[in-house]
Structure formats: structure tokens, C-alpha cells
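New to this. Please check this protein:
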Amino acid sequence: MNFTPRLFALLTFLILSCGTVLQAQTDKLHTVAEQLRAIDTRSKGNPSGDVPPSAQKLLPQLKAELREIIGRTINEHYSFFAGNSA
């Protein structure tokens, strides 16, 4: 089954959802997401539904940016509650 189009749609949704929290951090993330969305996954050169080589190069950047945003969001959330519980 070909999950690639759904994967890119989900990643785009997650990126845009996180974008409201850390706008300055998501500029790079938004750029990578747009580059991923621009990749044609339904071309004849990709009949198996595998992740295209051009997307494989961008996925580590996407993961690193998401990891940083999620880490900062969790840390800010934890710091807020830790400061209010004292």
C-alpha cells in the first residue's frame, strides 16, 4: 500500500500546527516541508511508492527541526508548570 502521499500530508499538518507555537524556529521547518510537498510521489519513476531520493535527503532535516521544536515546547510547558507548583 502506498502511504507516501498520506505521510507527507500528515507531516505538513503537524508542521503547520507546531508553527504557531515557535514561529522563528519553524522558518527552516516550513521551508523543508514545502520542499517535501513539491516532490512528485506519483511519477512513473516511483511506481513502488518508496520514498524518493530527493525526499530521503530532506527527511533528516525535517526530523531534526521537529525534534527541536517538540523538545522546546515540552521544556517550556514543564518549566511553566514547575514554576507554578511552588
In short: The chain has a mean pLDDT of 75.
